[in-house]
Amino acid sequence: GFPRTMGQAEALDRICELDLVISLNIPFETLKDRLSARWVHLASGRVYNMDFNPPHVQGIDDLTGEPLVQREDDKPEAVAARLRKYKDAAKPVIELYKSRGILHSFSGTETNKIWPYVYTLLSSKIPPILSDEEN
């Protein structure tokens, strides 16, 4: 997400005024497992997840047949370190937006269970765009 640090939040404040901030509270282990299951085809940037979007043949890109690789920062130890660092840096940002009364937090482990709540919030804040026929 963005902003991740107070410096980024302060820079964002200089160019716009936020009226809504969404925080997704996903358990550490869920994030670690998902990120650690990510493999990529470097030449194209195609991303696979071995749990919910695996390639047809394990370790092989679907389109080229070339090998997939796991980035160093997606290995379990690196993911755990990245998540700890993010949590420490993001905590004051979360507190800032909470103190402004614009933070909306959602918790869970599955996108399809969290998304309806996020969508309802966004729908209440952003008017729908009507097509020409609906106007």
UniProtKB/TrEMBL annotation:
Q: What keywords would UniProt list here?
A: Kinase, Nucleotide-binding, Transferase
- The Adenylate kinase active site lid domain extends over 38-73
Is Mitochondrion tagged as a keyword? no
Matching entries from InterPro entries are given as: Adenylat/UMP-CMP_kin, Adenylate_kinase_lid-dom, ADK_active_lid_dom_sf, P-loop_NTPase
Q: What is a single molecular function from GO for this protein?
A: AMP kinase activity
| Record-stated family | Belongs to the adenylate kinase family.
Q: What is this protein called?
A: KAD4 kinase
